[in-house]
Amino acid sequence: MFDLREHPHTRLNILNGDRVLVSPHRSKRPWQGKMETPPVDERPSFDPACYLCPGNKRADGTINPVYTETFVFTNDFSALLSNTPEGNVNVGGLLQAGSEKGICRVLSFSPDHSLTLPLLSVADLEKVIEVWKQEFNSISADPAIKNIQIFENKGEMMGCSNPHPHGQIWAQASLPLEITKETKQQQEYFTANGRSLLADYLQLELREKERIVFENEHFAVVVPFWATWPYETLVISKRHIQTILQFSPAEHSAFADVLKRLTTRYDNLFNVSFPYSAGMHQSPVNDGEHPEWHWHMHFYPPLLRSATVKKFMVGYEMLANAQRDVTPEWAAEKLRELSEVHYKQI
Ligand code: H2U
Ligand code: ZN
Q1: Total domain count, the chain
Q2: If you count Cβ atoms within 10 Å of the first and of the last residue's Cβ in the chain, which end, N or C, has fewer?
């Protein structure tokens, strides 16, 4: 009898239409997860060499203000530029290109170089969310912008350039690949059922409980059924809303609570500042109505077995299909068991 806990199988990612190969039997290999000495990550509150610390000079010579809460600026090495001319290339359908217009912003979450999201207070996290809202609002005022990607790359392992707590925003005139796929999937479901795909999915997860990590009044955190990364999670708003601008004051606070608790659990998994790429997915802007869209946030952490052993997406994953060994249900259980008191604050 086919058993999801025993037998190799594929799972459908209903949000983007991809599939992941799950090989649960492989996690029965002897567990090599010895506790390694976590890398030292003691940092000063101010680093004179940091381009994000208050009052310091950035790579382009600009001096940062002596800010006391958050600080946001246009990326000095933006991947997307607002003055890009329109244009297309099409050589016999074989060589196709199109100009892409946009803007990139960098957001320092705190003036304190030594902190990370889980070490910020809930009140300070609320201020970060407020800046995300302001940025989303002001960037969407440009009718040329269709997608606003708010994200954080955390940790050297994820290619983050600086440990100072910060995130980025890339906004552009066309819909990037993941957003295109998620829009299609959500649209198809909404058209067929008249309901939000993620609202129905969340209801099912809250009933089954197996993959829920935790919830509060307005959000739930789940290891999605189709998770690719070992400890991947999805934050879903309980209310069917399209963007962060629709957060009520209570949802604003509840989201800060989720960020604090989830990133604390992550750090406590291997007693290390947990690396990840995380970002919100929201409805496109200046693109008509998108009633199908349901706000959510993805966390994609690379770590597998310890503070230093990461899951490589190579070989079969690059050439064929994403694959995982431990099941999402197993990962959810591990994350559920963890304390919400940060190991550094015990
Ligand atoms: P990471 O999230 O990968 O660390 O990126 C930080 C961004 O900060 C990166 O995109 C920008 C880089 O272009 N940056 C500046 O805008 N000014 C600087 O002085 C250095 C880095
Ligand atoms: Zn700094």
Answers
A1: 1
A2: N
Q: CA of 148: how far to CAs of 30, 61, 100, 279, in Å?
A: 44, 27, 14, 11
Give the Cα separation of 124 and 261 in Å (integer): 14
Which of 63, 75, 149, 276 to mutate for ligand 1's pocket (most ligand atoms within 8 Å of CB)? 75
User: Helix, strand or coil for residue 219?
Assistant: strand
| Residue range(s) defining the domain that contains residue 74 | 12-27+48-345
Distance of CA 268 to the CA centre of its chain: 18
Residues with CB under 6 A from ligand 1: 51, 58-59, 75-77, 106, 153, 159-162, 168
pLDDT, residue 161, reads 84
> Does residue 35 have a pLDDT over 80?
no
Ligand 1 pocket test, candidate residues 57, 76, 81, 157, most atoms within 8 A of CB: 76
Asked if residue 157 is part of any domain, the answer here is: yes
Q: Is residue 237 part of a domain?
A: yes
Question: Model confidence over 284-309: pLDDT tens digits?
Answer: 999 999 999 999 999 999 999 888 88
Q: Alpha-carbon distance 109 to 120, whole Å?
A: 9
Q: Is the residue at 185 inside a domain? A: yes
- CA-167 nearest atom, ligand 1: 2
The whole-angstrom separation of Cα 187 and Cα 194 is: 10
Q: What is the pLDDT of residues 99-145, one digit of tens each?
A: 999 999 999 999 999 999 999 999 999 999 999 999 999 999 999 99
Closest ligand to C-alpha of residue 166 is: 1
Determine the distance separating the centroid of ligand 2 and the alpha carbon of 51, expressed in angstroms: 6
